[in-house]
What does this fold into?
Amino acid sequence: MLQDVLPGVNISEPTRKGHPEVVANRRFLHTIPEIGLQEFKTAEFIESRLDALGLAYERCTPTGILSMIDGRDPGAGPVVMLRADIDALPILEATSHEYVSTRPGFMHACGHDTHTAMQIGVARRLVNEGFDKGRVKLCFQPGEEGHHGAEKMIAAGALENPKVKYCYGQHIWAGSPTGQILIQGGPVMAGVDRLEISLTGKGTHAAQPQSGYDTVYAAAQVITALQTVISRNIDPLEAGVVTVAMINGGTAHNIIPEKVELVGTIRWFDNETHEIIKKRVPEVVTGIANALQVQAEVRIIHEHFPTVNDDMIAEIVRQEAVQIVGEANVITRQRTMGAEDFSDFAREAPGAFAFVGAQNPSKDCVWPHHHPKFNVDEDAFAIGSELMHRVCLRLLELPA
Ligand SMILES: [Zn+2]
Ligand SMILES: [Zn+2]
It folds into this structure.
């Protein structure tokens, strides 16, 4: 099948043989989506698959699973962690395929079901074929979608006993066609802060604005002025985002409200940009608020660090990707302002995070991540499985 769709793609025989099982596991997982930190049925399914492989495992957090696979000489090589996230999203699925969610209101709309299934497939290969040096720690991580699952696993000791030396993760990617792999060193996904602004003025009759201090007008000015932080304070060659995504205030057409709340997101790749944004956002907001006689409170709350790939490991991933899909299909200059809590692992142990293209218009796999019609090309699982297995073997060759 793959050769027909993707001439020239180089998938090894064991991955090819394991592919139907990866597809079946993913389809099953797709029918039982569970949101972050509630993945109890998902975890049971993963454990049943690990049981079938004869692997021991432990719950590191209530739904986070760790399992070890030893090489023939475990002490002679490093501990390499492979990570798959396992959670779904609170979205009502609107696809019509046969493995549609059986839990209305919940959906694997980011593809974490595919990550879990591919990692189980890689585990099967590692068990069946074995490897010489080192140990592989399989990490099935809950709560990636804003539930800080990685942070919780790290706090529970996921990277210790044995200590993880290198880590690797990947995301199925609906934004790129099947047959492409995206990998590069340095920051690949953004850091995230949540932005909350409260503006408090003096409520009054909407027909007598002179008797109050207008928070709605102030909110309009604040939102407009905040756009200068990126356009005027950040080097145009650097990337950043300040978005106000929610405005809450007011109860009637004839009342100027006492309070307006603004909520949004801040994104960045490098620390310098982050520091400028963190300094300028409160300055701009309070400056405008002072001028308009309202009080401002600004809260910038940490959500995620940028996902920063280690250059040496990213190069290993690139080399293996080239072996699978060819040089022309390995994209090394594409980053996203989306975020990933794999970043937490990569801050503790050098690692890399790659993207595996899975867009295919002929199968209606064209909808973006988190969309009710999101779906991915199953052929891409063979590419993702092959990549993860190859990268794992290469990392195991690195110094312990
Ligand atoms: Zn997502
Ligand atoms: Zn995701």
Q: What stands out?
A: The chain has ten helices and 16 strands. Residues 110, 112, 144, 171 surround zinc ion (ligand 2) (CB under 6 Å). The CA atoms of residues 111 and 172 lie 6 Å apart.
